Amino acid sequence: MNNNDLRRYIFSFLRKYPKKKCYYCGLVCVWDKEVNQHVDMMFYYPENNTYCMKCYEKHFRCCIS
User: Fold this and answer.
1) From CA 32, how far away is CA 17, in angstroms rounded?
2) In principle, which of 18, 50, 51, 63 could form an S-S bond with 56, CB 3.0–4.6 Å?
3) Strand blocks (E) in 1-65
4) Is the pTM of this model over 0.70?
């Protein structure tokens, strides 16, 4: 049961890093499925920033009066 090749092959399908994580706090928002609610914002063309709802409300709160 100590087959290293088989173990390496099986673990090659597992994800090491999340698909999306919060830009500010690093909270995982999407692994394979959505883990936490998040907002995707595109400020500059190639870069797409993801924010969790907590950081989004703290940094991007818009007060309209």
Assistant:
1) 10
2) 51
3) 20-21, 28-30, 38-41, 49-52
4) no
C-alpha–C-alpha distance, residues 59 and 37, integer Å? 16
CB 4 within 8 A of CB 12: no
Using CA atoms, how far apart are residues 51 and 30, in angstroms rounded to an integer? 11
pLDDT exceeds cutoff 80 at 65:
no
**Contact of 48 with 20, CB cutoff 8 Å:** no
Count of CB atoms within 10 A of residue 19's CB?
14
28 contacts: CB under 8 Å, gap ≥ 6: 18, 20, 21, 35, 36
